[in-house]
Design brief:
Blueprint lengths: L8 H16 L3 H18 L2 H17 L3 H18 L5 H14 L6 H16 L6 H16 L3 H19 L1
Helix pairs in contact: 1-2, 2-3, 3-4, 4-5, 5-6, 5-7, 6-7, 7-8
Amino acid sequence: RKALGEEHPDTAEALGNLGMLRLGQEKYREAEQLFLKARDAYQKAGDAQKAATMLNNLAYLHQEEGKNAQAEKEYRQCLEARERALRPEHPDIGVSCSNLATALAGDSAQGDEAERLLQRALKIAQAMGPDNPDVGYALNNLAFLNQKRGDAAKAEPLYRDSLRIWEKCFG
């Protein structure tokens, strides 16, 4: 901060990293403030992608706290920012789709939107190869959505496919 200033991208990086540490320590208020400062610094520096990552971190934090409406709003903002900044098939857009879908999965009224988002995330992940770990994550999230909908027959093969991919990737 002293050498570079509050709004320098390197300062923002340090703030975001410290925010992740505080999130892991369940120091949510402190993590939130750090993510907000990092987001603001990235926005002022014109780095939309990293500002979107801080929005994603804020959304995850709020989801952990059970503030689902706030998390949904931030995940939507993150996805919109990434859609403006990145090509449509970029892996980060797939991650944003998946994250937003997990926030929507608990609301039966939004289940169809969650499924569309997860199908989009799966398509993006599959473009990186059928056994890419992101394919496993997308399949796992689709399985979870079907489980939440009470459809174990649809969920189980998706969970099994996800497990097969992860075992292949990670042992």
